[in-house]
Design a protein that fits this description.
By secondary structure, this protein is α/β, with parallel strands linked by helices. It has one domain: P-loop containing nucleotide triphosphate hydrolases (Rossmann fold, 3-Layer(aba) Sandwich), CATH 3.40.50. It has seven helices and twelve strands. The strands form three sheets. A six-stranded mixed beta sheet has the order 6-7-8-3-9-10, with helices on both faces. The protein has a four-stranded antiparallel beta sheet with strand order 2-1-4-5, covered by helices on one side. Strands 11-12 form a two-stranded antiparallel ribbon. A hairpin with a 2-residue loop joins strand 4 and strand 5.
């Protein structure tokens, strides 16, 4: 689904952010990308949907070069940013989710169907007419997810999805991430809060200084986290398995 080949990126001031990233993300994978501050996580995921252009190297998404077919790639790749407020553009929940489909030029019937489906998927259908500014932090994050889902992407990327959320909000957003992956979507997550999602991911990639340092299964990579300045999960083990935050 995603192929990243020898990706390099320098910012205008000369700062090198990514240095030779090679990474393949297969269809349907739930991938966790983690690393210390300044490791290049956000820079990397912004290349996947064409928000940033490589200094050199190539990114192919569903057979499309992300640098050459930016509009098509963005239809396939939905991005949920860390600051949910930055993605909210409507006065009400319904208006906000409708914004994306409206800009695709869809007719009203298809727009309404997409909005209702997206709100149902995130459990906000009863808040359709609620002003966005009255939502809780967790509800705003779920609204941002709904706005992305209304575009019907095949890949969804989450940048620090648990930031500034309380326990309830974290569980709600984690449930959405897991559900999307179970529905068959490819999901990429960057987060410092590794323990909140580690029980659900297929693979972990550790970035440091703009390079892939370690990648593999959660069981293999978890012992390496602290070596790369990442807080290891304080998880419990039951029957040899990591306990999910979604467990009662």
């Amino acid at each position: 689904m995603i192929e990243i080949q020898n990706l390099h990126h320098r910012f205008a001031d000369g700062t090198r952010a990514l240095s030779g990233i090679d990474l393949t993300v297969p269809d349907g994978e739930l991938l966790l990308i983690c690393g210390p501050n300044g490791s290049g996580k956000t820079t990397l995921i912004r290349h996947i949907n064409g928000l940033l252009k490589p200094s050199s190297g190539r990114i192919v998404v569903d057979g499309l070069d992300a640098s050459l077919a930016t509009a098509e790639v963005r239809r396939r790749v939905g991005m949920v940013f860390q600051d949910a407020d930055s993605q909210i553009v409507g006065e009400t929940v319904w208006e906000d989710v409708a914004f994306g489909p409206e800009n695709l030029g869809l007719d009203s019937e298809r727009i309404n169907a997409r909005v209702l489906s997206a709100l149902q998927m995130v459990g906000l259908e009863d808040h359709a007419e609620k002003p966005c500014h009255l939502l809780s932090g967790g509800e705003k994050r779920r609204l941002a997810i709904a706005g992305v889902l209304a575009l019907e992407p095949t890949i969804v990327i989450f940048d620090e999805p648990f930031a500034n959320l309380d326990y309830t909000g974290t569980r709600q957003v984690l449930h959405q991430i897991v559900s999307l992956n179970q529905q068959g979507r490819t999901v990429v997550v960057t987060t410092h809060d590794v323990e909140k999602i580690i029980a659900h991911v297929d693979r972990i990639v550790i970035l440091q200084s703009g390079q892939v340092k370690v990648q593999g299964s959660p069981e293999r990579v978890a012992p390496e986290l602290s070596k790369h300045q990442i807080r290891p999960p304080c998880y419990s083990i039951l029957g040899g398995r990591m306990i999910s935050w979604l467990s009662d």
